[in-house]
Amino acid sequence: MKTFKRFKNIISSNVNSVLDSIEDPEKMVQLMIHDVENSIRETKQALQEKKSEKISTAEQIKEKEELVKRWEQRALLAVQEGKDTLAKEALAEKKKTFETIEQLKENLNTLDTIIASEEASIEKLNEKFASIKAKKSSLVARAQHAQQKSKINETLRATESIDFSDKLDDLTAKIEEMEEKAGVDDEISHEKAFKDLERNKEVERELAALKESLSHHNN
Questions:
Q1: CB 119 within 8 A of CB 47
Q2: Which DSSP letter does residue 161 get?
Q3: Are residues 146 and 119 part of one domain?
Q4: 121 lies in the same domain as 190
Q5: pLDDT digits over 137-188, tens only?
Q6: How far is CA 179 from CA 165, 172, 174, 182, 183, in A?
Q7: How far apart are CA 19 and CA 146, in angstroms?
Q8: 177 and 108 in one domain?
Q9: Which of helix, strand or coil describes residue 24?
Q10: 74 and 17, same structural domain?
């Protein structure tokens, strides 16, 4: 879960950043505890924002569903008055509104997944936080060891030479990523064109169906 990974990153980041600057490991662990408390608070705030967004999205879906009904009524009225052009426009708007509803429903499902994940993450964070406080003395001893090991690793890294072949590989990967993105953009453009064709076709079919229904009703 992303939130729980952030928690692990907080621990790692703080250890790396303050081992050299803080001589007192106990103070360092206390700082870590403080940062984890902040992380829990921020995660709860983010969770509340997602819940509010879910409520708003659900309200938008309801509004759009009412709008679909209005466009259906307008299309029928236009057909009854013999105004095919207006009927087609109404059906096209109905189709676009329906597509918006589908996107909103997809967003709603995503929000449900995120909310469930965040709630589970907060529970894990709280459990981990309690564990850290309970093991504070042990963590201080481990921090002292990590402090010594960090200095050793820094000395070793300073003696390593830079591998320029890695830099070249990174550059190559970046160029390939740019090339791939350009291809994806073309695909998106083509996909939009096909969707427009499909939408127009469906509007024509619905118009024909409305006419046939109205013809049967008049007979």
A1: yes
A2: P
A3: yes
A4: no
A5: 776 777 777 777 777 777 666 555 555 556 667 767 776 677 666 665 555 5
A6: 21, 11, 9, 5, 7
A7: 8
A8: no
A9: coil
A10: yes
For 12-50, the pLDDT digits (tens) are: 555 555 545 556 767 777 787 888 888 888 889 999 999
For tokens 């950043």, the residue is: 17
* pLDDT tens, residue by residue, 96-141: 999 999 999 999 999 999 999 999 888 888 888 888 777 777 767 7
| Token pair 């299309």 in the structure block, residue | 75
Q: What's the pLDDT score for residue 6?
A: 55
**Cα distance between residue 26 and residue 35, in whole Å:** 14
Domain that holds residue 26: 2-160
Whether 149 and 190 share a structural domain: no
What pTM value is reported for the model? 0.50
Query: Do 35 and 107 share a domain, yes or no?
Result: yes
On whether both 53 and 143 belong to a single domain, the answer is yes
- Helix, strand, coil distribution of the chain in percent, nearest 5: 90, 0, 10
Number of domains in the chain: 2
